[in-house]
Write a structure and sequence with these properties.
Blueprint: H1 2-24, E1 32-51, E2 57-67, E3 83-88, E4 94-113, E5 116-136, E6 138-141, E7 144-146, E8 149-162, E9 168-181, E10 184-189, E11 192-214, E12 217-239
Length: 240
């Protein structure tokens, strides 16, 4: 009887072990992954603008390399903000989630001369990026796998400025893209992963609007914009 009990216990442990290992594996059912995304990498961006009422399109291009910062150059990289991602795995591998980032920039200037110091507030800018997505994490080795994801990315930003001469300006912009990323997942420790791989944000629509007000008269200019980015970027993820 003693040997029968030992045999039953051993069999139960062996049967339970694969389940335990599956739960411990990155992307197991019931896990929530929190990610710091697009922390560093290289991004090639292009942006096409067409002013309302005009048949002329202008296109700007840039390539930027960033590390723990928002890449920017002659063409603003619209989608590659450092952001936080949250993904839930309802079943092994399948992930449902979103990434979000917010930013706020305020500026000021100071001029000195003739024994006087004049301070002046500059333009302010605030905005956010939101990227809902669906993906599938597949580990072909306990420490290595892939996690392809697809969804949309929406960016909205706005700013204002009051001129010392009495005028003011307000600007707003938005961008919408279909987004894909296929990171390689490297798992150096249980529930922790390094992600690195290609990203693509294919511009679908967008626009800019600028309002200039002076002496009670407001002039508004608008333009349609499509912005696309392709990059190789890296981040970190922790699964609970």
């Amino acid at each position: 009887m003693k040997y029968i009990k030992v045999g039953i216990l051993s069999a139960a442990v062996l049967l339970a072990a694969p389940s335990i290992r599956a739960q411990d594996k990155f992307g197991g059912a019931g896990q929530i992954a929190i990610s710091a995304e697009r922390l560093f990498g290289v991004v090639a961006a292009s942006e096409t603008q067409k002013a309302d009422g005009s048949s002329v399109e202008t296109t700007g291009k840039s390539t930027t390399i960033s590390f723990l910062s928002q890449p920017a150059s002659s063409t603003f990289t619209n989608y590659s903000f450092t952001r936080v991602g949250v993904d839930f795995f309802p079943i092994d591998g399948l992930s449902l989630g979103a990434a979000i980032g917010v930013f706020s920039v305020s500026t000021s200037s100071e001029a000195e001369g003739g024994g006087m110091t004049v301070e002046q507030d500059g333009p302010t800018l605030t905005g956010f990026v939101l990227a809902p997505r669906v993906g599938y994490a597949y580990l072909f080795h306990p420490m290595v796998g892939v996690w392809p994801r697809g969804g949309i990315t929406y960016v909205n930003a706005g700013g204002s400025y009051d001129s010392p001469t009495g005028g003011s300006s307000e600007s707003s912009s938005n961008r919408l893209a279909v987004s894909f990323d296929v990171p390689l997942v490297i798992v150096p420790a249980p529930h922790a992963a390094i992600t690195v791989g290609p990203t693509l944000d294919l511009g679908v629509s967008g626009g800019n609007e600028n309002k200039q007000t002076f002496m009670g008269v407001t002039m508004t200019t608008k333009s349609d914009v499509k912005a696309t980015e392709f990059g190789l970027q890296a981040g970190l993820a922790i699964a609970f």
